[in-house]
Amino acid sequence: MREAVIVGACRTAVGKAQRGSLVHTRPDDMGGAVLKALVERVGVDPKEIEDVVMGCAMPEAEQGMNVARLCVHLGGLPNEISAMTVNRYCASGLQSIWQVQTSIVTGSIDAGIGGGTETMSMIPMGGNKIVPNIRLAHEFPQAYMSMGQTAENVAMRYGISREEQDQFAFESQNRAVAALERGDFKEQITPLRTFKYDGAGNKVEFVFDTDECPRASTLEALAKLKPAFANPKSGKENHGTVTAGNSSQMSDGAAAVMLMEAGKAKALGLKPIAKMHGFATAGLHPDEMGIGPALAVPKLMERFGKPLGITLADIDCMELNEAFASQSLYCIRGFEKEGLTRDRINPNGGAIALGHPLGCTGSKLTTQLLYWLRDHKKRWGIVTMCIGGGMGAAGLFENLDL
Amino acid sequence: MSGTKQTIRKAAVLGSGVMGMAIASHLAGCGIECLVLDIVPFDNMLSEKDRAKRDKGDKAVRNKMAQDALDKALKLTPPAPAFFTPVDAKLIKLGNFEDDFEKIGSCDWIIEVVVERMDIKKQVLAKVDKYRAPHSIISTNTSGLSVIKMVEDCSPEMRSHFMGTHFFNPVRFMKLLEIIPHPETKPELLAFVEQFCTERLGKGVVMAKDTPNFIANRIGVQSMFLTLQKMQELDYSITEVDAICGKPIGNASSAVFKTADLVGLDTLKHVAQTVYDHCPQDESRESFQSPAFLAKMVEKGWLGRKADSGFYKRGKGKDRFVLDWKTMEYKAEDSPSFPSLEKAEETKDPGKRLKALVASDDRAGRFAWAITSNSLVYVAHRIPEIADRVHDVDQAMCWGFNREIGPFASWDALGVRASVERMQKDGLSVPSNVLTMLEKGNESFYKEEAGVRYQYDLVNHTYLPIEEDKKVIILKKLPKQQKVASNDGGSLWDLGDGCLLFEMHTKMNAVDNETIAMQNQAMDLLDAGKYKALVLANNSKNFSVGANLMLVFMAVQNNSLDEVEKMAKAFQDANMRMKYSPAPVVAAPIGYTFGGGLELCLHSHRVVGAAETYCGLVEVGVGLIPAAGGTKEFILRFTEGVDMSNRPSLLPFLRNAFESIATAKVASSFGQAVEFGFFRHQDVMVPNAEYRIARAKEVALGLAAVGYDPGRPREDIPVIGESGTAAFMIAIDGMKDAGWASEHDQKIANKLAYIVGGGKRAEGQTITEQELLDLEREAFMSLLGEEKTLERIQYMLMNNKPLRN
Q: Which residues does chain B have within 8 Å of residue A145's beta carbon, measured at their own beta carbons?
């Protein structure tokens, strides 16, 4: 069977949606910029790339019309590169990498890029025009349940207290702030030359190269925040525990990972840095979508870990997307039982601190994971996330740059 | 002024304290651009970092005083929000005395509201003299300092444009404005300011003399301090005094101590001190001395509401405490009751109420007499010192202290001769002006002859006619022959000039079969060409609270749902008839304008309403949806002007309509109703509520004159279809999950979603107005079959507030 390897990965720094640095940066521009930067980093002739797959969770308006194809153009890449946009909500950016992996392994292509791009500044959650199916509205409205409510449900059903959630958020912020101070993300980030309109008719250009979401917080400050979604006086126990402080931050960003058939990489003199061994998804009731990783990860290990002779206890680093503290804590409880200790999960903090640009997240977390494994000379890593509508996804990676 | 008409488009407010910002907020709400300046912060007001920034010219730091004041004003919430709507703040520009003073040169009116110190005021006014435009009006909002002295060093030009304008806080709600002319003020400017403030700011203007504290505060504060004194002398408790000295004696219901807490004890003490210091001739000068316990309270910082403790103090939850002035300790608040007070409560007429109360020989009656008699004597002594006319004094006390009737009117109610005898028996020194009046055989301060009201002139001892403001239309005072028709629910009035008025006069002006009959009769008269235009209005505090729920409830109980449906249909039809009447219809709402009340406005061609109009379609509160065309009108209004040719999505617009009804959203002012899209931009806000009927008449006749065309019932209303319905259903499902909506809320909202979506239709299709009305009625009737809806109706009828079930 053909073998695919990862030869490069990079991402933009992540901006705070609505009021951050990337409010006026289009997703196609961000996507184009990371594609271009990745090709340059790897040092490959762009003509060698055959296909680009970009994840995007709300692919409409500024990121509509097959945004991946537009990213190719804006990245200055040749017309001969085909492109596709994939959407599995928050797993889109992981799905895209796996898509390229399978295309290579099955012989469709020899080299491709999987990535993701998302602007939450420009496209609201749910998109610009939410028009659900009337039948589902009557029979199964949970199919459209807001993410915040699912987080409340997880907290209520599995007894995850406000204090635990705040503590988790606090830890995430601390880890992220420490990583930023150490400069751990510097190398993986491609500085983005972009601009902002100042409102007085000027287009102000600048370079954006540092994640701007993390902020040192205190438990007291976190405890003071009001529930962001639910009414704490609804009478339901442990209701209204999810706040802006213990939820992921709305953000903007793009990331991309290049994969190549192993022989081709060798022929081109490129050093394989990692390998994606597997990918698994799972479905569950939409009203507690947050526990998706707890289902997807065991499936991943059963199908791909087992043949490699590894279990969760062997995983050196897991990037678990922190959509919400409540769902993260639920999933972590299960992983801990399988021997994956807390210090190996999100060692540099998670989405609560660093942001969660939906369709970009899978590629962004993969980039973070690969750099972490390389920097720490560790071998095995997992990227996993919950997915709106009631799903989970997980991908298994091996660092080859030991 | 070179022949241009004087007007005020832009004002400057100098000083951004509570009063300054409250004045600016109100001006902005009335459409006047406002420049607010204050000092550049002193060193001790800033951190070291900010001091450096200030010295480098950082505007944010230099304008900090005004900015902080604006932020604070924006945070004021009910019961006393400064702004009609926060959006009004856009008309306020901020600055500071050092960098921006020359900007007052572009202002038509400059109001000085700096700290109450003569030297500082003089300094600021000297600067105003330098930078003002020649045509500009300058006024000082002092509450006690001499207006004449303030400008003694200014140019004659400035003095001729100068006057005192004493606003009361909260400026939005307090009607009184005392204008204090300077001897040199141009008379035409005074007349202009009086008219401007009356019409454009909605104020009740009383001309006052340049005496300490002017009219209302001089009398009001004396009455308060007198009450403190009598309370100690006669040994009453604070709650006893408040029970007696509120509504029972014609005062505001906040009575004495709750009012004092609201105003602030330091302020009160200061105001009283002003009189003490500057009125050595005042025969009751000693009553302005603060009693020891008050001084102690100020010392302890128990300054009232702003300090969270004053005469009263709020505890946790519903705990309320009151001060025991003898021990200076707080104890649980009690509510004393007296037989005479219970009786007084039943009397609606404030004069008769007072008369009965002071005649009763219980604790309440005796105290009420002591306060009333002493106050009346004090007030009579003040003429002509602070005012020449009794009517001015009465109006000042009604508008400035929320009294139901002024002191002289209440004296009339007591019977002047009889009460003077009782006062003299008590040893009070009744002033000679009143005694002379009686000697001359004049028994009252007011009288009415041949439809003309007169007031007694205590200076020249003759009756003077009271000049009635023609812009104030009071229906019950109109000649009887102008009442065209009437039934239990409403009346039709001929306003003259071809204008008809439809008045509802049921309880809370609720809509019922009778009002609908009268509404139809009005339309008959219009259709017959007997009148050119129609005004919907009344003289009540509240326009209408909507449909008569009691009727609806009883009908359901009696199993006569078909009666309810008939009434709903009749109201819909009457509203449609009005909407498409070729003769213009103008609604003049005020106060509560809910449900059916608002639906009447929505089907009128224009709304010409009071600034203080509180409106919304609040039917979900009683488990229903608006079904007299309200839902339909919100759909139309929120999608008005959308050009469908490029197939835009109506979702965000209809979502606003849906949410406004589903959450029973209420606009808390006319301006906010326009902002929310309930009223239109071409609707007219009338700052002075008393003028709303006359204004509505003018607008109605104006529309008639220019040939108003209401169009034809719409048959092409674009819909969003079932997908839109689904979107609303999902939204409400989320609200339910999150604990913000109950299951019954959801049921109601889903029915609403169906209508707002346009029923069983797809985006791109259309619906007619009549079909929308049919959907409304269908939903309304089906909800009446719901147990929980009936529970809500019953609860509302019994408790006057909505039940969440």
A: 733-734, 737
